[in-house]
From TrEMBL:
Residues 28-338 form the Glutamyl/glutaminyl-tRNA synthetase class Ib catalytic domain. The lineage of its organism: Bacteria, Pseudomonadati, Bacteroidota, Flavobacteriia, Flavobacteriales. The gene is glnS. Residues 341-440 form the Glutamyl/glutaminyl-tRNA synthetase class Ib anti-codon binding domain. PANTHER family: GLUTAMATE--TRNA LIGASE, GLUTAMINE-TRNA LIGASE. Belongs to the class-I aminoacyl-tRNA synthetase family. Keywords: Aminoacyl-tRNA synthetase, ATP-binding, Cytoplasm, Ligase, Nucleotide-binding, Protein biosynthesis. This is Glutamine--tRNA ligase. It is an enzyme of class 6 (ligase). Residues 451-525 form the tRNA synthetases class I (E and Q) anti-codon binding domain. GO terms for biological process: glutaminyl-tRNA aminoacylation. GO terms for molecular function: ATP binding; glutamine-tRNA ligase activity.
């Protein structure tokens, strides 16, 4: 959370009201309470960001408390992973605590409830209890053991603790109201028998407290001022407060539970149970597989803490659940890496270029910038020789005027090197082009439209590149009643490529991030060695998913004149319309519109854009849209001319910070 906030969210308003009503700022204390039964995922970053962000804002302590009450699913591995993830995101906790630290206190309080007639041991089957509980529209009925004597309940509960009974023989229930409107208040379970070793307490206990009983009491023990949780716990608040009422000391601070909307992401699963199934079924290669939405998976894929925190901050704190488009997360990492990642050259789908008029044994070392967005990034040397690799898709034997790459008889500039002209090709027996014979010109001052990346064949370093796509091809894979979420697995979510990279990458270390020029952002995988370089694709330079969506996902609309008219409109016209209201949009919508403009820009020619360079100064949104489109054209080979430079100079001197930032980036 940023310390410079545009307005208070509703949770901050609650805290401010409490402070205004007499709560001391010294009493503020928050917590992040994960259950160590899996790895943290992107959905948890919102809860982490809210609690730790409030801690930073109010200079208040934040506990990291593990709600470890289920030994059947919890492991030390998950504890260690959670700590690593929270620390990697840049947050520091005050105390590391465990609900298991409070097992004795929770047991003592449970005994107290039995003595006061507010808890009892039930010995029925789970099926019988379920029948008695009723439905949301029908009240429950009392079970046969509800009125056991205090003495019998104390005896049975003590014997449960001593291990005399098998799992499922007895449970301890709170005695509240079986006719209560809120089904969670119909004598909820407090303890069950589980004869399994706990990752911290071993076999000391064979009865374990339920979450609802543990959570609020743990907050109370730790004197948490505001217990913040996601919306699915809102119905639990009444039970949270009822349990506190049984143990509260009026001289101590009483925790206050408040709920916020979960972070749901499109094309993503947010259930740890379902993520575990992906791991156990071998769909992915562990919890840190770069296709997983886990924090460890995102880290391995090349995401940065800054990008994830920016994403959470942009999404904001809401009262209602909604689904955030995953493209917003991808946009945030692009924005971050654009500023920080060194630009390098790599060829993923190579075809050989032979420069026939260049000396065979000559090697030149050209200087090129590491990152034009960062003046302090410096420069490096890259080798140039007679034979090079370029991307196959950067060459066509014949192409139209809008193809700004290499074609027979056409010229392009090689990044930081010479201008070359394609003269002829060599093909294999299948008619595939295997070599492009070119000539070069030392007159690099000439203007040509296309600029290509390349790698010298003599110096190229072989590398394995893992190209990742979304793990699911359905926007909400676990929302279908008639289908299993596994039915929507994308079979093409991983593609392994043998690529060639420039020699400067030979010393690249795991975790380092780069922009492969014109291709996307990549980072060095944990499995990488000097002998075997491995790169993971973090994200492309542009969001291309819209064009990749399976046809069955696109809604079919017939006889809709409005949609037909829209589809016939030119991309530049739609961009102008999007730009008009750009500066009036909230940040999250600005990012979404920006992503749309960048996608549409692929279908805009320079000739269509140039007239908009003279857009009126007051139409800032349109000028921002023009800058965005210009960036795409420049990236695809368009060169800067007098008109482009004049537009950029005027934009850089504007008063609007958004426009200035986009212009400076170009």
């Amino acid at each position: 959370m940023s310390l410079e906030r545009k307005s208070l969210n509703f949770i901050e308003q609650i805290i401010e009201e409490d402070l205004a009503n007499g709560m001391s700022k010294d009493n503020l204390r928050f917590r992040f309470p994960p259950e160590p039964n899996g790895y943290l995922h992107i959905g948890h970053t919102k809860a982490i960001g809210i609690s730790f962000g409030l801690g930073e804002y109010y200079n208040a302590p934040v506990n990291l408390r593990f709600d470890d009450t289920n030994p059947a699913k919890e492991e030390q591995e998950y504890v260690d992973a959670i700590k690593k993830d929270v620390a990697w995101l840049g947050y520091q906790w005050d105390k590391e605590l465990f609900s298991s630290d409070y097992f004795q206190q929770l047991y003592d309080w449970a005994v107290l409830l039995i003595k006061h007639g507010k808890a009892y041991v039930d010995s029925q089957s789970s099926e019988a209890m379920a029948e008695q509980k009723g439905t949301p529209t029908q009240p429950g009925i009392d079970g046969p053991f509800r009125n056991r004597s205090v003495a019998e309940n104390l005896d049975l509960f003590e014997r449960m603790k001593a291990g005399e009974f098998e799992e499922g023989a007895h449970i301890l229930r709170a005695k509240i109201d079986m006719q209560h409107v809120n089904m969670l208040m119909r004598d909820p379970i407090m303890y069950r028998i589980l004869k399994k070793d706990h990752h911290r307490t071993g076999n000391t206990w064979c009865i374990y407290p339920m979450y609802d009983w543990t959570h609020g009491e743990s907050d109370y023990i730790e004197q948490i001022s505001h217990s913040l949780c996601s919306l699915e716990f809102k119905p639990h608040r009444e039970l949270y407060d009822w349990f506190l009422d049984q143990v509260i000391d009026l001289n101590k601070l009483r925790p206050k539970q408040r709920e916020f909307a979960r972070l749901n992401l499109s094309y993503t699963i947010m259930s740890k149970r379902k993520l575990l199934k992906l791991v156990e079924d071998g769909v992915v290669n562990g919890w840190d597989d770069p296709r997983m939405p886990t924090i460890s998976g995102l880290r391995r894929r090349g995401y940065t803490p800054a990008a994830i925190r920016k994403f959470v901050e942009t999404v904001g704190v809401a009262r209602r659940d909604n689904i955030i488009d995953v493209s917003l997360l991808e946009f945030c990492i692009r924005e971050d890496l654009n500023k920080t990642a060194h630009r390098v050259m790599a060829v993923l789908n190579p075809v050989k270029v032979v420069i026939t008029n260049y000396p065979k044994d000559k090697v030149e070392w050209f200087e090129t910038e590491n990152n034009q967005e960062d003046e302090s990034a410096g420069f490096r040397k890259i080798p140039f020789t007679r034979e090079l690799f370029i991307e196959k898709t950067d060459f066509k034997e014949e192409a139209g005027n809008k193809f700004f790459r290499l074609k027979l008889g056409g010229e392009v500039r090689l990044k930081s090197a010479y201008i070359i002209k394609a003269e002829s090709v060599v093909k294999d027996s299948n008619g595939e082009v295997v070599e492009i014979h070119c000539t070069y010109s030392e007159d690099t001052a000439r203007r040509v439209k296309g600029t290509l990346h390349w790698v010298s064949t003599a110096h190229a370093v072989k590398a394995e590149v893992r190209e990742y796509d979304r793990l699911f091809y359905d926007e909400a894979p676990d929302s279908h009643e008639d289908k299993d979420f596994m039915d929507f697995i994308n079979p093409n979510s991983l593609k392994i490529i043998e690529a060639f990279v420039e020699p400067s990458l030979q010393e690249a270390k795991p975790g380092e991030r780069f922009q492969f020029q014109r291709l996307g952002y990549f980072n060095v995988d944990d499995d990488s060695t000097q002998e075997q370089l491995i790169f993971n694709k973090t994200v492309g330079l542009r969001d291309s998913w819209a064009k990749q969506k399976p046809k069955q996902e696109q809604p079919v609309k017939q006889n809709n004149n409005q949609n037909q008219q829209k589809s016939q409109r030119k991309a530049i016209d739609i961009i102008q319309q999007l730009g008009k209201k750009y500066t009036n949009l909230p940040e999250a919508k600005q990012l979404k519109v920006k992503s749309e403009i960048l996608e549409l820009a692929k279908n805009v020619s320079y000739e269509e854009l140039e007239p908009l360079f003279n857009t009126a100064v007051k139409k800032v949104g349109t000028r921002i849209a023009v800058a965005l489109v210009l960036g795409v054209l420049l990236e695809n080979g368009q060169t800067k001319n007098d008109e482009v430079n004049a537009f950029l100079e005027k934009a850089i001197n504007d008063k609007n910070e958004l426009l200035v930032a986009e212009a400076r980036a170009l």
